[in-house]
Amino acid sequence: MKTLSLKRKVKKSLLLVPLLVLSLSTGITNAEPISSKDLAEQSVNNYIKAVQEGDIYKAANWVIDERFSTAEEQLNQYKEALISNPFSEVNLKSITPNPDDSYTALVELTRKDSGELNTVSYPVIYKDNSWKLVINGQETMSKKVEKLTKHQNSVVISPLAATELGSYSEFLLKVGKSAYSNKFDMTENAVGVTGWQQIAGSVSDTTVRYSIVKKGLFSDDAYGQTFYTGWNYWDGAAFYITITTSSRTYSGVHLKATNEDIGNSIAIRGHIYGN
Fold first, then answer.
1. Which of 127, 154, 261, 273 has its CA 20 to 30 A from that of 54?
2. pLDDT digits (tens, 9 = 90+) for 128-184
3. How far is CA 158 from the centre of its chain?
4. Which of these, 52, 219, 43, lies nearest to 125 by C-alpha position?
C-alpha cells in the first residue's frame, strides 16, 4: 500500500512540473520590455553617478565627448575637472525623444559657490551598442561672469611687452561651431588676443565670440568673453582684444572661439598673451 501511495505522489509531482514551466514562461513572455527611452535615461544617470563617485573611467563609458581628440586627453582633463568641478549637485530633469530616434536630456547643475542653477541640454544617441550622452561644447556661466562681460574693464596687454601664453592654429569654423587654443595658465585676471578672421574669398565682416573656458565634466564653464566683428587679411594686420575674468586668475584654461555668423564658415588663427 505504501509503495502504491508513493508512486501516486511521484506521478502527481511529475504532472506539476510542466505546469510550473508553463507558468514561468508565461510570466517571462508577459514581462514589460525596457524601452529605449528608459535605457537612454539610465545611461545619463550612469554618467552622473560615475562623476559623483569620482570614477572617470566608468564615466567615460557613458559619454561621447567631442571636445577631445584622444581618450587619453579626455581622461586627463576629467581627472583635473574632478578637483575644479564648480557644481555640487547634478540632476536629470527630463529626457525627450527626437525625430531622428535620439533623445535630448535636460540637466540641472547647481553651483557650489552661489547655489545658482545652470540648465544644460545634451543629445543622447545610440552608439557601440549602448546609449551615450554627448558633450559637444555646451557652455555654462555664473551670473557674476555674465555681469562682468557686459561691463568689462579696459585692461591693456601689449603683445610687444607680454608673454605668449598660447595660440590657436588655423581653423575653419562652421556656423555655430567652436575651436580651442592649447591649454594655458593665466598670469593675471585678463588676457590679450591678437588674431585674424575672415570668410574665404570675401571682405565681409564676421563675428566671432572669444571666451576663456575650462573644459569641465558637464560643460565648458566660461570665466569671461568678448565679441569681435571684423575682417583681416590673412597676412596683414591682426586685430587686438582683451578678455577680463574679474579679480581671479585661472589655470588649465582654453581660449574658445565660436562662430556667431549666421551663414558663413570663418577661418581663424591667433595668439594669447599675458603680462
1. 127
2. 999 999 999 999 999 988 887 776 655 667 777 789 999 999 999 999 999 999 999
3. 33
4. 43
